[in-house]
């Protein structure tokens, strides 16, 4: 039981890029603060590179070697369902990547859990057309270039047609992508409108990289957009 708790504590630390307080970690792992302090001392005694600073919190040293990730049953369910959603709703390269990740996770699991993981009864289906070289009804024909643009902060020009059929040309900073059941949505900072805008991928007629990139400016980031929805 304690070994599982220590591994769980490591996973909580792994997910964070900033220090986290003992109180927060104790609440997340379901133990008292005193027990949390003892667990941290145990990890440090085992050579795990955990740094604790009074008034700041705990964090893992950057670049540290850590034991392999461990997953409980609910986490494996979430991973498999998420990967199968990506395989069903992504463009061809993304779907293939999801299948590769599934195989890598299965290979890393203990043998007695591997078959159970690959046979999990979770499925995902898409009512949209399968992506093809010629295009897809739900706009996935542009998904590959848009994913790259979001990742590399590439400024794009879009030829777009709104719900009323009105055509426009937009210069945008692509910030994020959201998958719905039948369509993908691009969230971007639109230079043309000087504001956040959402673009349905099935209404984007053409995507043209400008060759320029953008910086993540405060007030124009994806997290700033999400804050407007709260």
From TrEMBL:
Domain Helix-turn-helix type residues, every copy: 5-59
Residues in WYL domain copies: 142-208
Gene3D superfamilies: Winged helix-like DNA-binding domain superfamily/Winged helix DNA-binding domain (1.10.10.10)
InterPro entries documented for this protein: CBASS_pafABC_assoc_protein, HTH_11, WH-like_DNA-bd_sf, WH_DNA-bd_sf, WYL_dom
Any matching Pfam family: HTH_11
Domain of life: Bacteria
PANTHER family: PROTEIN PAFB, PTHR34580
Designated name of the protein: HTH domain-containing protein
Originating organism: Caenispirillum bisanense
